[in-house]
Specification:
The protein is mainly beta. It has one domain (about 5-155). The chain has one helix at about 35-40; strands spanning about 5, 10-15, 45-50, 55, 70-75, 80-90, 100-110, 115-120, 130-140, 145-150. A five-stranded mixed β-barrel has the order 6-7-8-10-9. The longest helix has 8 residues, at about 35-40. It is globular and about 45 Å long. It starts with a strand and ends in a 5-residue tail after the last strand.
């Protein structure tokens, strides 16, 4: 399925936890494959309903707003603002042990959907309303996941 929208290629960085993404994400399927492939190419993509034109996240077979099963993939610039965050003082998963303490953000993207991701490569103190930009982290098994950095640090 082709993707429409921005040609923005996001920075791809190695995941500093030195671990495999493995069971932390849903295995690729015909529905999730475009998202996974786009992440590998440095692109953040969102489902957009073909009928009501609203974006959605997480990936779903039908639109939660109008019930349509028709959708297309659109490119996201990966910019947004922090609406919530949590700092983990210990690791609940071995993949994150080397990163403790680490911060997970809930970011409202410019497209209006919310997405979770790690606050990467920074000592910045997270704040509600903080402008952030997405990057892609490559894990040791070649899995890819979005993460976020303060807006002025993405380059």
């Amino acid at each position: 399925m082709a993707m429409t929208g921005s040609d923005t290629v996001l920075p791809i960085r190695e995941f500093p936890g030195g671990a495999a993404l493995g069971a932390l994400v849903i295995p690729p399927s015909s529905t999730t494959r475009p998202y996974v492939d786009n992440l590998k190419a440095g692109k953040l993509s969102l489902q957009c309903c073909s009928d009501c034109r609203r974006h959605r996240n997480p990936i779903a077979p039908v639109c939660p707003y109008c019930g349509s099963s028709a959708y297309e993939w659109t490119a996201s610039e990966g910019t947004g603002s922090v609406v919530s965050w949590v700092r983990y003082p210990r690791s609940y998963l071995p993949e994150f042990e080397r990163l403790v303490p680490y911060v997970v953000l809930c970011v409202e993207l410019t497209e209006g959907v919310r997405m979770f991701g790690r606050l990467a490569d920074t000592d910045a103190e997270p704040q509600i309303g903080m402008a952030v930009s997405a990057i892609i982290e490559r894990w040791t098994d070649d899995g890819h996941a979005p993460a976020f950095v303060p807006d002025d640090m993405r380059r």
